[in-house]
Amino acid sequence: MTPRQPIPATTARLSAAGLRSTATRRAALDLLAEGGHLEVSEVYERLLTELPGTSLQAVYGVLGALTDAGLARRIAHDGGPARYEARVGDNHHHLVCRECGRMEDVACVVGAAPCLIPENTHGFTIDAADVTFIGLCQDCAEHAPV
């Protein structure tokens, strides 16, 4: 398969974040920009079709670098694998189905970031709240035993 053409701003975004523009970084960032919440294994499988020499370790490294540079967000919750998305900087939250693992974005619960502030901050300056709502998606709820 022919490698996809990078989204025009991808190289500039990598450079602005202080990262070298490698084929794997460009492809991973473009893949995340297509939307969704991808596990490392999903990113790896999709990149293999474009960049056959890519290793799983390289994908872990690329996703870590993109996250550290603020170009991707790592989402981890109890009971599930970490996932990555390109939607950063808006302090949105997530809904996760405990049955099938489906994940959806939801806007800040209360106002603007950080959305929620605890009664006692213990001296912390809070700039973000990471909230994961866990329940059953509609499909799983419809098929759940009564």
TrEMBL record:
CDD domains xrefs: Fur_like (cd07153)
Recorded GO CC terms: cytoplasm
Top-level taxon: Bacteria
InterPro entries: FUR, Fur_C, WH-like_DNA-bd_sf, WH_DNA-bd_sf
Co-factor requirement: Zn(2+)
Chief subcellular location: cytoplasm
Keyword entries, A-Z: Cytoplasm, DNA-binding, Iron, Metal-binding, Repressor, Transcription, Transcription regulation, Zinc
Location of the protein in the cell: Cytoplasm
Biological process per Gene Ontology, one example term: negative regulation of DNA-templated transcription
Secretion signal span: none
Entry keyword Metal-binding: yes
Cofactor comment text: Binds 1 zinc ion per subunit.
GO molecular function terms listed in the Swiss-Prot or TrEMBL record: DNA-binding transcription factor activity; transcription cis-regulatory region binding; zinc ion binding
UniProt similarity note: Belongs to the Fur family.
Protein name: Fur family ferric uptake transcriptional regulator
